[in-house]
Amino acid sequence: MDFTRIKNFIHGEWVEESGVEYVPLYNPSTGEAIGEVPLSSEKTSFEAVDSSYAAYDSWRKLSVSKRMRFLFDMRQAMVENKENLAVSIAVDQAKHISEARGEIGRVIEILETSCSIPTLLQGEHLDGIAGNINGRVVKQPLGVFGGVAPFNFPALVFGWFIPYAIGVGNTFIYKPSTQSPLFMQEMGNIFNQIGLPPGVVNIIHGNRSIPGTWYEHPKMSGVCLVGSTPTAKKMAEACGRGGKRSMLLGGAKNFLVVMEDVNWDVFIDNFIHSCYGSAGQRCLAGSIVAAVPEVYDELIERVLEASKKVTYGDAMDPDVYMGPVISAKAKASIEEYIKIGIEQGSNLILDGRNPDLPEKNQNGYFVAPTIFTDVTPCRRIAKEEIFGPVVSVMKIKDLDDVLQLIREQKFGNGACIFTQNQYYTEKFIAEADVGMVGVNVGVCAPHPYLPFGGIKDSHLGTNKVQGKDGIDFFTQNKVATIRVTPPAGVSEEGKKTDGDKSVRSCVAQ
């Protein structure tokens, strides 16, 4: 692709930032520099806030049906440009093209679900609270929101934040990752194509200094993030000081629990998807495979055989399954964890370092499937988020044992169990100390009409994303208490009190 200088999208126009530092944008499959991204200034951030604030009043007053029309048009434009959008993800984020298409498909589903906002936005009404007093709860937008996206799901996080925020009447400022900005460059063009009013969505690029301008800003109402737990905690503190609403999704360390009655075909298919899809760079990736003694040895044989068959290479190559990780820094971090795993005594049975690659991908950021066995809970590879295709296999005594291990974790995003036993299933759903559970699925991501999010260190702030939670986060409840009184000259029973003797009977007339 051509070398691209990324621009900000402010008040409906593409603006090239000047007088600031630009950082390189790479294709992780090849290591080639394909563009540069501005680290925008505080002044530009304030311009984006002013733009969204100016657009808010007229946007919130637009009828909900007209706002929904923009969401319908956005959905249709994404359908028509699905392949271009997927390619934009596969190029700079290096998610394999088949997965990138799946991500766009899921965002289209989220847009379709968000079009039900008129139903979800309905308030409450209670008549007869006391005589002629009624009560009403009205859901209203709050103002300008800012959102910070991670590198790994540039489209999905857009879908979690923007359709719900603007659908209920807010305006939005979106900061993509500097490592994967191309998707939002395509979306800015779609915003103009559908005639979205200027300022309803602004796109600004930069580092952490951009959200840093939002926390104390009087025109900002809230901040959203999908990112690491340390970043989420810092933002939660800053939002608390600034009195801003926050919705912050952090890190994870997810278990795949294998019981003695596992269906092996189902498990292996889901294991590959969970642990190696997106090169392990997602918050619901399987990281720890915990098996009971009855199947532990067989599990090792099966996952080793299946993992050796996983193909990897250029994200645009239809004949491979897994693309690279996002950057040279990420690759080095993952390889450091592999080294730590060895040093702490775990058994490395599949080493993904220095994989064989075609010549054009020699400078890409690749780590192949990696498996450790004999991992104990106290080791770093069992406790810390590696964010790569590294699997730790652990032997557990029974279901109660693994439930205790999950309970003791600082993270609480997701966990999945593979079993045919209804007792195991119900106990796991009830007692797994996570926000999302799966049964015979490897990635327990809820469908768009249900909330998505973890607990403990995996989620900070109010509400989760998607569904009713998304509506609740982006709205505030206004409560009205209404005493209904008759006009002057009319009694509570509706009769005139001014002596009117008019005859109203048709018989008398």
Automatic annotation (TrEMBL):
Signal peptide: none annotated. It is an enzyme of class 1 (oxidoreductase). One of its GO terms (molecular function) is methylmalonate-semialdehyde dehydrogenase (acylating, NAD) activity. One of its GO terms (biological process) is thymine catabolic process. Residues 486-509 are annotated as: Disordered. Coiled coil: none annotated. The keyword Oxidoreductase applies. Pfam families: Aldedh. This is methylmalonate-semialdehyde dehydrogenase (CoA acylating). It comes from Desulfomarina profundi.
